[in-house]
Amino acid sequence: MNDCLENFEYSDCIILVASDLKKELPLFNARLRSSFLKDNSTISSIGCNSDNGFPVPSLGLGIQEFESFIEGRHPICSLVSKSSNAKVVLSSEIFSSSDSAFVSYLLALFNKKVPHDIANGVSIININASSVGS
Fold first, then answer.
1. Rounded Cα distance, 102 and 98, in Å
2. pLDDT tens-place string over residues 90-101
3. Is it the case that residue 67 has pLDDT exceeding 80?
4. Fewer Cβ atoms within 10 A, N terminus or C terminus of the chain?
5. Alpha carbon distances (Å) from 2 to 33, 34, 68, 123
6. Which sequence spans correspond to the domains of the chain?
7. How far is residue 46's CA from residue 14's CA, in Å, rounded to a whole number?
8. How many Cβ atoms from other residues are within 10 Å of residue 93's Cβ?
9. pTM for this one?
């Protein structure tokens, strides 16, 4: 997994997982909104239903939807597989939940199952990054 936040503007499909970007990373959310308005990228979310300032359809709110996505059973998987530059953005908060071991297992499974270029499009954002050093 690498840092896809630098190149996300070039992505045609972005899946946000447990991320409330408007609250957690407002600058990244503004850049994502700009990219959406410019390129009309497909941006969807799993695990969080928030107002980002642009349409972000929710694909479900539970860990079951994330598992379905990882296993390739979720309807969004066909769109991701057709994408030329898909990105998956996870909030670091997902690892502080009671399901953190299961999430880690799912990410390892994802890394094995999907094509290398999509697996490299996974980024974990640290929502506490702005408080480092304070």
1. 9
2. 888 877 778 788
3. yes
4. C
5. 22, 23, 23, 6
6. 8-95+114-126
7. 11
8. 18
9. 0.78
